[in-house]
Design brief:
six-stranded antiparallel beta sheet
Length: 258
């Protein structure tokens, strides 16, 4: 008979009552991510509102800046730009006043008198500056090479090829405002609804023009337009910030556990 004592740590074969059992592994409760469809939608809408607010605030601020700093004789005035052409004319792209879309910004009820000052690089040059219906101007310039000013503010132009023979511009009857003579020219125009083109030429119609120019306009409603843009932009910005901050705060706050 084997009298060797049995270790208390080892259970005899077949004895399951003495087997050690491992303690259960604690499991961490699964936390919800917090990004529900509603929170994602709120974040997207908030970002959109903030994105829309930026150009509104920028436009309103620019309008106020122009109203208080860019004024000459009560008119909001642009910087002076230099333009030249080997052709017979400098012409702007058509400006549509009082039309749908953004055209209301240039309606006569909003836009007061417009002034254009043109100074020849050669002080002795005899210049013509005029504004007329775009369709009439296009017919007048159709056969002549000229340069089109597509964006006055960025000095962007393109050239249209053609001949050089043009009759004197002052002889045309379709101009609604014009100025002609030696040296700097100042043209003032009371805008009305329609499509209009501004033209700068030598008074005798010959080719080759080299000038500097600036634009100015009296805009009585500009301060109110600026304030309106700032108010609307501020409302959009406030709504966007509130949506974004509320969504992020809810996402970062851990849910309570019992």
């Amino acid at each position: 008979m084997n009298d060797r004592p049995i270790s208390p740590l080892v259970a005899p074969a077949g004895d399951t009552t003495q087997q050690d059992t491992l303690p259960p592994v604690p499991t961490r409760p699964v936390q919800p991510s917090g990004w529900t469809a509603r929170s994602v939608t709120s974040l997207v809408v908030g970002c959109l509102l903030a994105f829309i607010a930026l150009p509104l605030l920028g436009a309103g601020g620019t309008a106020l800046w122009a109203h208080w700093t860019q004024r000459d004789a009560g008119m909001v005035t642009s910087d002076t730009e230099a333009f030249s052409t080997a052709g017979s004319a400098l012409a702007t792209v058509p400006t549509h006043l009082g039309t749908s879309g953004t055209g209301w910004l240039y309606a006569p009820a909003v836009l007061g008198p417009v002034r254009m000052r043109v100074t020849p690089v050669n002080p002795g040059s005899d210049l013509f500056v005029g504004v007329g219906p775009s369709a009439e101007v296009d017919r007048y310039l159709a056969t002549a090479g000229h340069t089109v000013i597509s964006d006055f503010w960025t000095n962007t132009t393109y050239t249209i090829d053609g001949g050089t023979a043009l009759t004197a511009p002052a002889a045309q009857t379709f101009w609604v405002a014009s100025s002609t003579g030696v040296g700097p020219r100042t043209m003032v125009w009371e805008p009305t609804d329609g499509s209009w083109t501004v033209v700068v030429m030598n008074a005798d119609g010959r080719s080759g023009i080299d000038v500097t120019a600036d634009l100015a306009a009296r805009i009585p409603a500009l301060p109110w337009i600026a304030i309106g843009l700032l108010v609307v932009g501020g409302l959009f910005a406030t709504g966007g910030i509130l949506l974004i901050s509320t969504t992020v705060r809810r996402r970062s706050t851990p849910p309570s556990t019992v």
